[in-house]
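Researcher: Let's try something more involved. This one mixes different molecule types, so please make sure each is placed in the same coordinate frame as the others.
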Amino acid sequence: MFPEVDEIGPDKPVEKCGVVSIFSRYEHAAPYIYYCLRALQHRGQEAAGIASYSREREDIVFEKGLGLVGEVFSPDRLEKLPGNSGIGHVYYSIALSVPENAQPYVFHTASGTIALAHNGILTNAEELKVRLKKKGHGYYSGSEEESVSYLISDSMLAGKSMISAIKSALSELDGSYAFSFMVNDHVFAARDPMGIRPLCLGELPDGLGYVAASESVALDAIGAKHIRDVRPGELVELTEDGIKSYQLFERGEIAHCFLEYVYFARADSVIDGREAYRSRMRIGWRLAKESPVSADVIVPVPDSGRAHATGFSRGSGIKLEEGLMKNRYVARTFIMPDQHLRDISVGEKINPVKSIVRGKRVVLVDDSIIRGTTMKRIVKKLRDAGAKEVHVRIGSPPVIAPCYLGIDMTERGQFVAHGRTVEEIRKIIGADSLAYISVEGLMEALKWEENQMCLGCVTGEYPIKIKGEKTRLQRTLQDY
Amino acid sequence: MFPEVDEIGPDKPVEKCGVVSIFSRYEHAAPYIYYCLRALQHRGQEAAGIASYSREREDIVFEKGLGLVGEVFSPDRLEKLPGNSGIGHVYYSIALSVPENAQPYVFHTASGTIALAHNGILTNAEELKVRLKKKGHGYYSGSEEESVSYLISDSMLAGKSMISAIKSALSELDGSYAFSFMVNDHVFAARDPMGIRPLCLGELPDGLGYVAASESVALDAIGAKHIRDVRPGELVELTEDGIKSYQLFERGEIAHCFLEYVYFARADSVIDGREAYRSRMRIGWRLAKESPVSADVIVPVPDSGRAHATGFSRGSGIKLEEGLMKNRYVARTFIMPDQHLRDISVGEKINPVKSIVRGKRVVLVDDSIIRGTTMKRIVKKLRDAGAKEVHVRIGSPPVIAPCYLGIDMTERGQFVAHGRTVEEIRKIIGADSLAYISVEGLMEALKWEENQMCLGCVTGEYPIKIKGEKTRLQRTLQDY
Amino acid sequence: MFPEVDEIGPDKPVEKCGVVSIFSRYEHAAPYIYYCLRALQHRGQEAAGIASYSREREDIVFEKGLGLVGEVFSPDRLEKLPGNSGIGHVYYSIALSVPENAQPYVFHTASGTIALAHNGILTNAEELKVRLKKKGHGYYSGSEEESVSYLISDSMLAGKSMISAIKSALSELDGSYAFSFMVNDHVFAARDPMGIRPLCLGELPDGLGYVAASESVALDAIGAKHIRDVRPGELVELTEDGIKSYQLFERGEIAHCFLEYVYFARADSVIDGREAYRSRMRIGWRLAKESPVSADVIVPVPDSGRAHATGFSRGSGIKLEEGLMKNRYVARTFIMPDQHLRDISVGEKINPVKSIVRGKRVVLVDDSIIRGTTMKRIVKKLRDAGAKEVHVRIGSPPVIAPCYLGIDMTERGQFVAHGRTVEEIRKIIGADSLAYISVEGLMEALKWEENQMCLGCVTGEYPIKIKGEKTRLQRTLQDY
Amino acid sequence: MFPEVDEIGPDKPVEKCGVVSIFSRYEHAAPYIYYCLRALQHRGQEAAGIASYSREREDIVFEKGLGLVGEVFSPDRLEKLPGNSGIGHVYYSIALSVPENAQPYVFHTASGTIALAHNGILTNAEELKVRLKKKGHGYYSGSEEESVSYLISDSMLAGKSMISAIKSALSELDGSYAFSFMVNDHVFAARDPMGIRPLCLGELPDGLGYVAASESVALDAIGAKHIRDVRPGELVELTEDGIKSYQLFERGEIAHCFLEYVYFARADSVIDGREAYRSRMRIGWRLAKESPVSADVIVPVPDSGRAHATGFSRGSGIKLEEGLMKNRYVARTFIMPDQHLRDISVGEKINPVKSIVRGKRVVLVDDSIIRGTTMKRIVKKLRDAGAKEVHVRIGSPPVIAPCYLGIDMTERGQFVAHGRTVEEIRKIIGADSLAYISVEGLMEALKWEENQMCLGCVTGEYPIKIKGEKTRLQRTLQDY
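Model: All components are placed in one shared frame. Result:
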């Protein structure tokens, strides 16, 4: 029996976290960090935090809590964060959260205070923890952020300069990261050597300082100019004298997460030179060429499939209509006592516009399918509303493998595409036809080479060595 | 100086309330009412309430409170509402709300218990109250719903049958109304003689009963079949033996609120035979013909202008792109201390997709302009993002007069179009060109005659006599 | 099996409500009402409310809510209550409360706005409601306060003057009441013809106005001088020109509630010329004479038995020691899963001081026993702590009958003394000896005559006709 | 001008924290820890926490939060704490608390998980932190509890056994402590070498395990038998095989905090063999002999002065009466806008019983005076109520110096007795006479020698070296 999605988790890949670093000549940086975090809210809604450097107290202060940015921070609470520089974080966690787990993590060491905010996952987190514990370090939260902090402080304590210490610490890390962090009043941002997670750089209006953030929409939010992206393996310090850059690692292979383009990033974000909206449009266009279909109307799944659907419409010449309406007020859902009420409950988020679908051959376009249960439900709704045919087109290849590098998709068993053919999936979701974009088509649309992307979740081959999984390199050797 | 919108109120017309009546053979009707109310949540987010008839207590019981439907009602609270029939209400109020003001209002009288939920405004509310007070009635909330309840109970007490008493009570009312109400275990719905506010009828799945609701999306939510709309001046009782209909008033002039089609109703609702989505599409198409413009791209204001923009794109042949992204997490906004932060704050809801607008001649499409401040801000954002020209097209005629019949637009001074020419408004919002749809074009698009619509807010002439205002009749006499 | 007390209700009689009326020359009366209500908080902790007359709005405004006075009213909320006169209420209810049920009740009528706060119970509430409903009145809360309000407004509407209308309304009421009420900007207080519930009058400092309140401690709280008590059957209006008095009913038999002296009133209150503390002392003294015992130490049940115990110590010459300590932080108690934990839970409020009771013959003094379960537990605790003997002395006669006039003791089955001899009760609570004060001794101590008191709960004979119960009159005829 | 007390802090010394350790054969120890903490609630109301060892997860789990024990822990939350052993903590903090600061602190180290709850203050906390930071440790909260945890884990990591490591860690600490702590599934309690803070040992009913707690009332609460106190310098492990004792430090000078007897401990607690209630009684008795006065009545300040007053009554032969009533509902107090209302606000907690004080010579007895503002106010209230004379007698010597060892009295400037003669203080509080108990009298009453007590706050000479202060030793050398 196919599991019911709402009982076991979200039917979309879920992003983990967003980060912000600011050095400014504003009297108080915290409100600007606040607006950046609001613009990154789609990357994590569980918790939010801001740390800033207080000259008066000569230390880093911080405030954090559970909830949306606007719930955690009142103007009063922002006022507790003086100082012209700071960092911020929005957090996603599928585990029941406690306020202690919110970021930034702030530690006081002999080398000063370290505040750290992280987007990504370290693949050697356990090894690091075991090693650092053996060295005598105690863990409060058990988080990998504690490890990074200890690596930096140990190196500084051993006599290294701040930059050398950071370089040394980061060189110990495997996996993905975009870090916003501070050591005392120094503000940094750093990106993993393969550039898996995004991180961009901006200049504040009127040359009043610099900002690094997970996505360019955070820059837009405060009127900052997008200068460039932080380079894979680059550490930047935001200072009064400009952005100081340290290329910590030789420029080697890169592996940007393709799902940022396809789903995570806000459509108006520009990542590593490609705008998410335009990327999605091109995917849709290419999908229309790869898997054409005779139909009357293109209907996007709101809001995730809209850009892809627009592209599909252009590519196919079939008109797009907003054939599905979303109930934007359905946030909390209770588990209802009887089956009939549960069926109502799972369907209340989406409703067809009957005039658009009745008697029509509909192409339903979305960005991805994970569990498949929502898609199955939507297909049924369209048929109930009178659609003659329902053809499903998906703007990413089938997700068949877990993500170990920052996305909340961890169990193969949860993927409808795991161990199934496209035809088998089509039957499960009840569509008349089903097509995913090919990896080649995707690459063409994104304008990246396959060996510049992390495609682990759709190929099962990862850019980084992961125990029990194939690495991209193997593939490269065999296939190219 | 042009006032800042976020300080003084919403920049969109705001609907007041939605209602639901259910008679069912379900053991408990309350969860079904709950889902109907969730589907009507866009009509009011301030408070919610449900009343049902408990056979055990031989009385109507009710629960209500401040907040969204999903916040007010937990499964535990729904369980306090036994019975197979009931009514529900979602409430909008610009005044600071108290739980006491939530509906349904429930009164215990010698003729039984009366529960009442109302969408609309009675124009003779004050006269009724004065008259009923003189008769000895005391008012707890001072609401017009108390008056209606007293009218019904007085008539029943005077010996009239329930239906006669209701008929007699409703005949005393002037103004607009869609009522869901109960007298003991009898469930009713009624619509004002001109059909100003919407109200539709459905049949529960498997013939298990009947439902009346403000919009058909509430019927969709619980799988009910949309049978027809409640007729202007019709009272219906939902019973075991079917829907009993009483045409209380001679079928005369009608006056459906055109803003339901243009903005209030969810796009997937069908009202009096016309679907909101298709109506908006046709408006956009007609607007493209009335006020064409040479441009590169059509951009809707999300989410309100999307259907109109789709129509405009069809009518003009210019492609539509989602050039504005909405931050869906910005609910609560604080007033920030300095001007720069306030500018950031008011702009954070909308961000342009740069690839779409840079260097382009943009047609920005929305459904309406009330104060104009948001539109002004969006035009500026588009220009900042590089738009070469910004042409604004609006899917309703200029709003120049208050609504007395159920919409929260009460002060002429708040309308940017009040006492200004279109050219003057264009200058205020900073557009290269501005056009509204004409009343004639609107009528053609909606497929209604001008004298079948309430157009008070755009013509200043009302279908019902309102002190100090012109009535539609005068206009009819003079202009036709 | 003897029922566990904490599962079925409190083991002390519980008072219902306290009231306050103020006319002042202060700019804002509400903060003074607030402090009066805080001093009356022991009379009701469920809800609180204040109404005041706003000259600006020419109407009564009110604020009320669930919780302690200090929880319901913030300074901000008090500021919403302008005006130099007003009334207040604290509420006790064993039923799950809703904010709507808080008092004062405020009704708007043709004769003006009526606000009403009530301590007491009307024994003809149902008859009144039926009669008023038949007259056409609808009930929102179904409360007797609505009835009183309708009686006043009907009479005023019929052309009577305000005072005549109030007199006429009050003459319809049977039962007990202390009312604080307003008709528009007129502030009143009234007491039932037998003076069952207390009500006293004070003058504000510096002659700035007048105050009526349930207990004199409310006067103390704001520095007001206690002038006298409101007389049984008296209506007072607090005005700029002084206290206007109207003796509505012939002075006849009176029936003050003796439990106010014994338990309800704060010990520092003076009621009808007798101070509660001194009354309790005299009861204890008299009890020592009536039921002497050879013992080593007198131990009060804190805090209720302390004054009685002091008197008992004086009367017996045996020293008093605070042999039981109370955990003042135990407010909320959860029902624990297993029996051992439940036993711990019910005992955690009281703990013996071992040095005082070990090896001693202890006299345990309290004011009353209702269910007996708490007393049983304390006796056991004393024995466990090493007490050689435990003698229980109670400062009221056995409670054997319900209260119909304002105290929350409604079921005969809940009284341990119902249908049991003193010896049987002694066995249940496990004491070596048990004695209650006699009715005669109680009267002597209180300095009232038996026919001036309501002793219904200890004699089963009531000062007012109550269906199915004996009245005091019968007793008077037979026994005197 | 003498400062208003309620604006600047409490007018009583405030205790910091209480601790509990339990090893049991109960399936779940957490509910028992919960009841122990409720009994210790008077030692800290700001936060509460419990840690327990989960066999299933093979780790320590914990729950903590802000508020009273009964607010932090619901039955659901207690169920998240499986395991038959654990520790608990109640916390007092004058600083605005954050949930992160609640205890127990739990750290994960290479030697296992350490959970720690602390009552007391380490006087070398800063030195320890600097030293441990230099060794490479990072601090999350900056608390001294982190230091203790690092000391233990460092020693264990260096190869010491658990007990040796704990011994080594505790030997590094200066100051006062009662610790409840766990290392993995081992449960410990430890007391500082001078026994400054209290800690007692008990046996669970039916031999089901052992408990250590700050006060014996925690043992009473769960029916445990008080065996003995933890000795100064003793470490105990609670195990299946009994209490294992390790005398870590040579038995030397001891220094019990005298304020535990005088004020902090609940009167029914027995500390180091002396019951608090009896100690207070004896103080009162001795005070009556030292500073007799001709008077009519002894009145205690409720509830703190009651036991002292009882002793004074015995010693003087003057009768005691409860002449002051406390409003037990006044928890939250707002700062009121005008002076008159502020005067009302500060006085509402206490009200005289007029019959007791009118025309009388009153002896007012309390345990201590810190700021003096409350005492001043009470004296005035008694005079306003008609007292002819008011003589104040205080059950502790004048507090003239800060506490560095666990009590929240840190600023000399806040003590009314700092730099003032008794006569000067008398004038400030407005009494007819004022006397404090002498140090000698206090010692006699407590049955301890002066060099067995910590009297720092009343002599300015401390049992432990404190920078800038005299030590008891100096005094000992000079004075004995």
